[in-house]
Specification:
By secondary structure, the protein is mainly beta. 15% of the residues lie in helices and 53% in strands. The chain has a single domain, classed as Lipid/polyisoprenoid-binding, YceI-like (Lipocalin, Beta Barrel), CATH 2.40.128. Strand 4 and strand 5 form a beta hairpin. The longest helix has 20 residues.
């Protein structure tokens, strides 16, 4: 009986190798990738900012409905359009960018509707702490870039995160919300 299972096991291993071989590597296009955040300011207006420096890679297999994401964001590159606010956000009160110059999103669980990604689940590491984070797709597409002559995949993703999970508690006692809306626009070029 063992000898009859050997060909089956070999076929399964070969098939698994074939499936994983279909995953393609993509590099984040920094000109079309933005990581932004929004948080209410005393229920009156919305503070917004973005991080200007980011890099990363994606492995994506549309047929196999799988993928991997590794994105690193430079927290020293925070940009709200107001230098004094940028400096405060980079301080130890909030992002503590001197001590923690990067945050990272790593994911290996993709959900699909047909061939469209609907969400990516992984972990966000911020201020030295790691917590689960699921980015929901509000838009997703792959296209052949006429300029790059390569496939580009990407979309718009968002999530609400509780900043206190990472120890970012500044202003909570004054009524600042703990929930922050994270918005990620990403495009990645097939390598």
């Amino acid at each position: 009986m063992r000898s009859s299972l050997l060909p089956v096991a070999s076929a399964v291993a070969l098939l698994a190798g074939t499936v994983s071989a279909q995953a393609a590597s993509y590099a984040i296009d920094p000109a079309h990738t933005y990581v932004s955040f929004e948080i209410s300011h005393f229920g009156t207006s919305t503070n917004r900012g973005r991080f200007d420096k980011k890099e990363g890679s994606i492995e994506f297999d549309r047929a196999g409905k799988s993928g991997k994401v590794d994105i690193v964001v430079d927290t020293t590159s925070i940009n709200t359009g107001f230098a004094a606010f940028n400096k405060h956000l980079q301080s130890a009160d909030l992002f503590d960018a001197e001590k923690f110059p990067t945050m990272k999103f790593a994911a290996s669980k993709f959900s699909f509707n047909g061939d469209k990604v609907t969400e990516v689940a992984g972990n966000l590491t911020l201020l030295g702490k790691t917590s689960p984070l699921t980015l929901k797709a509000t838009n997703f597409n792959c296209y052949d870039s006429p300029m790059l002559k390569r496939e580009v995949c990407g979309g718009d993703f968002e999530a609400m995160l509780d900043r206190t999970q990472f120890g970012m508690n500044y202003g909570i006692d004054w009524g600042f919300p703990k929930n922050v809306r994270l918005v990620v626009q990403v495009e990645a070029v097939k390598q």
